């Protein structure tokens, strides 16, 4: 039995049993951070000009919302915008983001090649807190749609939290918890995997604090290192 071990927390999982690898999106497979910064800047500039907001959200405040589910991210950033105007700016935000994602790929370098190599041996899944339309736009680029067996997100399974997405993946795949691996870059990914009872690989990224991944089974420096975890089998 081949096992993979983290130097940081000494937790192991049996890599030889894994049949499905589930990926978080933002920070793990894609990077829409600049698009998010640009869109929020434009929307809040309009709100400030109209007297509906006092200031721009900071980069740190925007990054802190990555991984939030449903409208939580928008409600966090727009908490000071009057209720009667918030929906207008939220729709403007979504419209601008849709336009950007329809015209540009945000997939991280090397990800299409990595997924293609993994798809030869494993079924691949997504496990994101995003909505269906957002996921569809991500998968429409770089041939990703054809590589993902289980395109799941909070919106597609009506999840209240990311662990619900993973539980639905377990249900539809019919696999045991030891046979599904979660890969993500934030504490929310690690927590969701732990709640669903599956092993998790943490990927370091600029969006999380240094200690966010300390309870992951394995921590890697970049997504391309994932393949190395399975090469010795």
UniProtKB/TrEMBL annotation:
<dbReference type="InterPro" id="IPR006439">
    <property type="entry name" value="HAD-SF_hydro_IA"/>
</dbReference>
<dbReference type="InterPro" id="IPR036412">
    <property type="entry name" value="HAD-like_sf"/>
</dbReference>
<dbReference type="InterPro" id="IPR041492">
    <property type="entry name" value="HAD_2"/>
</dbReference>
<dbReference type="InterPro" id="IPR050155">
    <property type="entry name" value="HAD-like_hydrolase_sf"/>
</dbReference>
<dbReference type="Pfam" id="PF13419">
    <property type="entry name" value="HAD_2"/>
</dbReference>
<protein>
    <submittedName>
        <fullName>Phosphoglycolate phosphatase</fullName>
    </submittedName>
</protein>
<dbReference type="InterPro" id="IPR023198">
    <property type="entry name" value="PGP-like_dom2"/>
</dbReference>
<dbReference type="InterPro" id="IPR023214">
    <property type="entry name" value="HAD_sf"/>
</dbReference>
